[in-house]
Amino acid sequence: MDEGFEITQGDENSSVILHVPHSSTRIPADVRAGIVLSDAELDQELLRITDSFTDKVAAVAANASSSTPWIFRNDLSRLVIDPERFTDEREEMLAVGMGAVYTRTSQKQPLRDETIFQPGSPAWNELIDTYFTPYTRALQQLVNERLEACGEVTIIDMHSFPSSALPYELHADLSRPEICIGTDDFHTPDDLTKKIAEAFTSFGTVGINEPFIGTYVPLEQYGTDQRVRSVMIEIRRDLYMDEAAGEARGEVIEALGEKLRIALAGF
Fold first, then answer.
1. Domain ranges of the chain
2. Angle between helix 250-264 and helix 190-200 axes, rounded to 10 deg
3. Please, are residues 53 and 253 in contact by the beta-carbon 8 Å criterion?
4. Average pLDDT over residues 182-211
5. Among residues 105, 232, 236, which one has the least CA distance to residue 163?
6. pLDDT tens readout for residues 139-150
7. Is residue 266 over pLDDT 80?
8. CA dihedral 103, 73, 174, 96 (to 10 degrees)
9. 215-232: per-residue pLDDT in tens?
10. Are 70 and 8 within 8 A, CB to CB?
């Protein structure tokens, strides 16, 4: 069975999980059949919407850390399902057709037939049951295991974003610093935010919750268990890649990974 995710084991004494949900471009053939874009259009949408090379940054940091963090990586494109969305009316991105199952592209154009892929429909439920639920269940299990082993967990939610706002963005008026740190009032303590910010200041401006807000916490602990700490790191893509060509600047990725390693030290 295509699980759609990959767990890279860290040290048994590590309480850190690097979560990489949007770095893949892989779409299974049966899921591709439900996407209305041409191959060329799909390639362009993947270039726009994928958090390219964030898995590489995470791997650099993990490989250089004295206490190796765990990595939970989505092996499927976010165009299959987006594991970081709510599946109910709490999800604000439903307003632009980009809830747990996207029906619109980043350009606000049709991605799937909205009459077929409505929340709760058979086609929507199949994607949720096949990909979303197993993913979130496995990540929840990993968090629970790290809690049992270490007494606390720190989730580093790894993302990137384009230098110019895409049409789907709900908060396009916010500034776009080189590094955005996303926080949660309950799950992101000030010392964690400060440590991440200090580690990345050499790359330029660092913003808090702009242009993207919040961070990932499994529902079992969300808003109730402060032993689960979480912070999102969003890297502006022009910092480390050619956005038009989709090509990485390898030396910058290495440097970003080293800054992440420094930020993780002591957790």
1. 5-264
2. 150
3. yes
4. 95
5. 236
6. 999 999 999 999
7. no
8. 10
9. 999 999 999 999 999 999
10. yes
pLDDT at residue number 1: 57
Q: What dotted CATH number matches 5-264?
A: 3.40.630.40
As a whole-number percent, the residues of the chain with pLDDT over 70 amount to 99
Decide if 233 contacts 158 (C-beta within 8 A). Answer: yes
Q: Which residues contact 80 (CB under 8 A, 6 or more apart)?
A: 4, 27, 28, 31, 127, 131
> Is a pLDDT exceeding 60 seen at residue 61?
yes
Q: 65-85 b/e with 16+ CB inside 10 Å = b?
A: bebbbbbbbbbbbbbbbbbbb
According to the 3-state scheme, what is the secondary structure of the chain? Answer: CCCCEEEECCCCCCCEEEEECCCCCCCCHHHHCCCCCCHHHHHHHHHHHCCCCHHHHHHHHHHHCCCCCEEEEECCCCCCCCCCCCCCCCCHHHHHCECCCECECCCCCECCCCCCCCCCCHHHHHHHHHHHHHHHHHHHHHHHHHHHHHCCEEEEEEEEECCCCCCCCCCCCCCCCCEEEECCCCCCCHHHHHHHHHHHHHHCCEEECCCCCCCCCCCCCCCCCCCEEEEEEEEEHHHCEECCCCEECHHHHHHHHHHHHHHHCCC
Largest CA distance in the chain: 51
Residue pair 153/257 in contact (Cβ under 8 Å)? The answer is: no
pTM above 0.85, yes or no: yes
